[in-house]
Amino acid sequence: MATTSCSPDHKDEEEEEYVLLDLDNIPEHVDIPPNASYVLSGLDTLNPVMIINNKLKLIGEYKETIGTCYAFSESEARPVVHEETGPSETNLFSGKCIIDPKQAPAKQVKPIASLHKILKFRFLTEINTEVAVAKKSIA
After folding, report:
1. What is the pLDDT of residues 104-139, one digit of tens each?
2. CA–CA dist 64, 41 (Å, integer)
3. Alpha-carbon distances, residue 109 vs 69, 74, 76, 77 (angstroms)
4. pLDDT of residue 134
5. Is 114 helix (H, G, I), strand (E, B) or coil?
6. How far is it, in rounded angstroms, from Cα 2 to Cα 5?
7. What is the rounded CA–CA span in Å between residue 84 and residue 25?
8. Could you say which of 51, 60, 72, 78 would form a disulfide bridge with 109 (CB–CB 3.0 to 4.6 Å)?
9. Burial of 127 (0-12, 13-18, 19+ CB in 10 A)
10. End-to-end CA distance of the chain
């Protein structure tokens, strides 16, 4: 029989949980500007709600991922600089830095979070339609 004890040293620690917000094909039907304001509510319920620009109401549903998804941040990386330090007969640029002009701009990515849930959003009207169809098929 296992027992657990509570001591004043162990405080309830909240663990951060990251969730991927999936808008699926909603941007194909509605123009959502990149800087649109939004409000997420009910994240601790089965069906959270997202309201975009105080107009568009979406209903979410949690989906478990297969395996672990990783989220990354992207930033500009500095160009690779080649410096010739040794003597060479053909080295006309001894001691100078050379940047290859043909080199494409580099990006640096860093992992920022791992997640195990996806919050998939749909139009509120899609949910209402599915409920109505389900009620008709039951009757």
Report:
1. 677 788 888 888 889 999 987 755 555 444 445 555
2. 20
3. 15, 5, 9, 9
4. 45
5. strand
6. 10
7. 52
8. 72
9. middle
10. 51
DSSP string computed for 49-70:
EEEETTTEEEEEEEEEEEEEEE
| CA 110 – CA 98 distance, rounded (Å) | 27
**H runs (alpha helix) in 1-139:** 26-29, 124-138
Helix, strand, or coil (residue 13)? coil
Going 107 to 109 to 115 to 116, the CA torsion angle's sign is positive
Q: Which two tokens stand for residue 105?
A: 């701009």
Tokens found for residue 104: 């494409």
- Summarize pLDDT for 70-82 with one digit per residue, the tens: 888 888 766 655 5
Q: Tokens 């849930």 identify what position? A: 117
- Residue 27: strand, helix, or coil: helix
List, in order, residues 6 or more apart from 46 with CB less than 8 Å away: 61, 62
Give the length of the chain: 139
Contact 119, 109 (CB under 8 A): no
The structure's pTM equals 0.56
Q: Which two tokens stand for residue 66?
A: 């297969």
